[in-house]
Amino acid sequence: MRESLARDATARGGRADDSLADAYRRCQALHRRHGRSYYLATRLLPAWKRRHVHALYGFTRYADEIVDAPDGSTPRERERRLRAWGDAFRAGERDDPLLPAVLHTVEVFGLDRADFDRFLGAMAMDLTVRRYRDYAALLDYMAGSAGAIGTMMLPILLAGDGPDAGADAGKARQAGKAAREPARQLGLAFQLTNFIRDIAEDLSRDRVYLPEEDLRRFGVTVEDLRRCARRRAASAPVRELVAFEVARAREHYALAAPGVTMLPTASQACIRAAYRLYGGILGEIVRAGYDVFGGRVRVSVPRRLALVAASLATPPGRPVSPFDL
User: Fold this and answer.
1) Staple 299 to which of 129, 179, 267, 280, CB 3.0 to 4.6 Å?
2) Which domain does 218 fall in, by range?
3) What's the rounded Cα separation, in Å, for the pair 314 and 133?
4) pLDDT of 101-150, one tens digit each?
5) What is the DSSP letter of 320?
6) Rounded-to-integer distance, Cα 186 and Cα 268, Å
7) Which residues touch 58 (CB under 8 Å, ≥6 apart)?
């Protein structure tokens, strides 16, 4: 994992270098537009690391947009597009607006391509699976989507805080073994937070990510959720259901918390901020009385900026507290 050597390898011709730079810029634009909380946290990383996080976000976001294409395409057509995207990635196709940056990032950090396969497999599930019978089934899906994103990001976050961090590769690999499960748990925490916040939005695509087992536990049906969406207000049983899912998400945050202090200093600030920003969404849901149907729950801009500033000011090595979420 040597950034300087990888830069040399991709700068053999002006056209190749321009293509790579353009691909990184496009990935950054996708991240800025669609991943506001994580994009803000990423600003705390050293610039040389930042673009690699943008590249991985670009890869995952583009796959997600294929799956959720609003152009009226059939699931089979979207499946073909997703397969073609995955095949282009596996073949090392660089004649693409985004893939040069993604492939360069994979090469620089020696990323495990199995994480990418797991992620693409989870995206394919979204084309056919609309319901999950229990939390074990949902976890299986989430392990391939958000869990895989957490582990594919980890080598970037574990790299030293300077561009010549290749000498620390062995140390980073050792740290990665301990940090892998917390990174996976943080991905699960982030995704479950999104699922809770976006119940109404997912319903519009005929998807319900809350397990059927949980709905039954609180006497809630999918039609009940649709009625809440139409009325833009949650019923008492739905609020109880959401409270249950918030508590479950907080369990994932608690399991992820030890991983923050395993990272280098600049990465600690970034992930501490992301942890607090996404966790802040849960706090806003609680403040709304567990009603996620009155409008998209957001952390205010002043609050987001305050959380980022606090994360930057926190001394390295100080544990994050999931009890603050």
Assistant:
1) 280
2) 3-324
3) 41
4) 999 999 999 999 999 999 999 999 999 999 999 999 999 999 999 999 99
5) P
6) 13
7) 23, 26, 27, 28, 30, 31, 98, 101, 102
Q: What is the mean pLDDT of each successive set of 10 residues along the chain, which is 325 residues long?
A: 37 62 95 90 93 96 91 90 96 94 96 96 95 97 95 93 53 74 96 97 95 98 98 98 97 96 92 95 96 94 93 92 67
Q: What are the backbone angles phi and psi of residue 188, rounded to the nearest 5°?
A: -65, -40
3-state DSSP assignment of residue 273:
helix
Angle at 22 between CA 31 and CA 144, to 5 degrees: 40
DSSP 68: T
CA 103 to chain CA mean position, Å: 19
Q: Residue 277: helix, strand or coil by DSSP?
A: helix
Classify residue 167 by its DSSP letter: G
CATH number of 237's domain: 1.10.600.10
Instruction: Give the list of residues 6+ apart from residue 84 with CB closer than 8 angstroms, or none.
Output: none
Rounded CA separation 291/236 (Å): 9
Cα separation, 144 vs 66, whole angstroms: 17
Identify the CA nearest to 191 among candidates 143, 153, 238, 135.
143
Q: How many Cβ atoms are within 10 Å of 233's Cβ, its own excluded? A: 13
Rounded to whole angstroms, the Cα distance separating 323 from 163 reads 35
The number of domains in the chain is 1
Q: Tokens standing for 246?
A: 């918030």
